[in-house]
Amino acid sequence: MISFYPGPSRVYPKVSRYMQDAYREGVLSINHRSDAFVEMSQKAMDGMRKKLRVPKNYTIYFLTSATECWEVIAESFVRKESIHIYNGAFGEKWCTYSEKLVPAVARESFSRETLLHADQLKFKKGDLICITQNETSNGTQVSTDIIKVVKKNNPNHLVAVDATSSMAGIMLDFSVADIWFASVQKCFGLPAGLAVMICSPHALERAQSINNRKHYNSILFLNEMIKKAQTPCTPNVLNIYLLMRVMADVKEIDSVHRTITGRFKKWETFFDLKSNKLDLLVKNPSARSHTVLPIESTPVLVDKIKTLAAKKGFLLGDGYGELKTTTFRIANFPSLRKSEIARLMDFLYDFI
Ligand SMILES: *Cc1c(COP(=O)(O)O)cnc(C)c1O
């Protein structure tokens, strides 16, 4: 079965060999305070820095999920109010999590078909602005150019960005915001159970002045340990090892970005020009995600396509939340092979 699910998603085929290497090399029993672990964890971070172009003065942290990142951000970076800008289910969920942890939240929602009007967003209140760069539920994205304007218009706020289903798939200019995070079971092509968070010096200064040390995963504890390439608790050592191996393998992000956007254009042409029964959910081309494509149709056809696809060996993503019956989703992640995409297109051709 080839998984086109946008998370958990298809892992890189080489992960199979890397897992066996991990066992043979004794990585699975390694102590997380040992030199061997420190070397491995440092290599994983160096690989990310190089391949994904993480700025030199930004710090990388290891966590366990994007959801945990939401919590750490609410606990470590917000004094009074976090502002949530979203147009879909994941952005909204993030807001709901923050609401339980911070004194106040503010919501700014926008439509799936309109770009975020960043020039109109100047906030007088609040400490932190939260943006979902790639909304996995409805297949939209906010460009780094727009995020840059948000930060420019609100220089005293920290800007945090959920890039769970785009990091390692498209080029992201990390320097435009303060906090970025992703779990690795999406674009990184790795198994679930690890997340990475990337923070600017500005973010760290803020956390130090807030000085919340009530939680085991406070960014301040993470920061003290990561200076030694370690984590406060025993981390997902196997996944950090796999991250190290995969980062050594993958091409630089600008090259991956070209591949992903090229494949996206092909999908776009396929559905926009050739089909009248299946349609991209998002009609505004500049709002479309390049890594997650929800396809809209009648509930009957959506169901039929998913069932027949499974029989042919393709796992398609279910629609998310309120879009469950009227859409299915196709991941456009780097771990998928060109030939696999061609085969899925062939299969879908019969329905368009
Ligand atoms: C999948 C996803 C999450 C949740 O990730 P977990 O690792 O399950 O916590 C959060 N945000 C976005 C945008 C996602 O796609």
* Hetero compounds: pyridoxal-5'-phosphate
CATH classification, class level of the largest domain? Alpha Beta
Give a count of the beta strands, DSSP E runs of length 2 or more.
Answer: 15
Coarse morphology: globular
The tally of domains stands at 2
Give start-end ranges of low-pLDDT stretches. Answer: none
H/E element order: EHHEHEHEEEEHEEEHHHHEEHEEEH
- Tell me the number of helical segments per DSSP (H or I, 4 or more residues long): 11
- Main structural class: alpha/beta
Commentary on this structure:
With 352 residues, the protein is α/β, with parallel strands linked by helices. The protein has 2 domains: 105 residues, Aspartate Aminotransferase, domain 1, CATH 3.90.1150; 235 residues, Type I PLP-dependent aspartate aminotransferase-like (Major domain) (Aspartate Aminotransferase, domain 2, 3-Layer(aba) Sandwich), CATH 3.40.640. It has 11 helices and 15 strands. The strands form 4 sheets. It has a 7-stranded mixed β-sheet with strand order 2-10-9-8-5-3-4, sandwiched between helices. The chain has a 4-stranded antiparallel β-sheet with strand order 11-12-15-14. It has a two-stranded parallel ribbon with strand order 1-13. Helix 1 packs across helix 8, helix 2 packs across helix 8 and helix 3 crosses helix 4. The protein is globular, with a radius of gyration of 20 Å. Bound molecules: pyridoxal-5'-phosphate. The site of pyridoxal-5'-phosphate has 12 residues, from helix 3.
